[in-house]
Amino acid sequence: MNCTTLGTLSDLKNCTVGIINSVIPIIVALTVLWIIWGAFSLTKSEGEDRKKWRDVILYGIIGLFVMVSIYGLVNILTGTFKFTGTGITAPNISNSIKAP
């Protein structure tokens, strides 16, 4: 990820993709830590606090499931449709136009 020169739109896209790819594992790791924190807090809590920590664990698991599912879906679609990231090329029509 080299974001020092952003001369073209492609450079900006590559920089953004690199940043996102670097941040996703950190977010997943923080979510797992959040679930573990909730589990430890659940074991030492009682009463109304137990319900709060149970909800924290549930929301953490749901969030982790959504993140991993979206990541998997993107990889399946990328592999299935052979997206290469090269973009759309304009057709060369200069040779196909004939003078009357």
Taking all residues together, what is the mean pLDDT? 83
**Morphology call:** elongated
Q: Find the count of extended strands (DSSP E, 2+ residues).
A: 0
How widely separated are the two ends?
52 Å
Supply the number of helical segments: 2
Order of helices and strands: HH
- Main beta sheet: none
Low-confidence stretches: none
- Percent in helix: 55-70%
What fraction of residues sit in β-strands?
under 5%
Broad structural category: mainly alpha
Radius of gyration: 23 Å
Describe this structure in words.
The protein is mostly helical. The chain has a domain at 9-72. It contains 2 helices and no strands. It has helices at residues 9-43, 48-81. The termini are far apart.
SSE layout:
Layout: H1 9-43, H2 48-81
Helix pairs in contact: 1-2
Distinctive features:
100 residues; mainly alpha; 2 helices; 69% helix; 0% strand
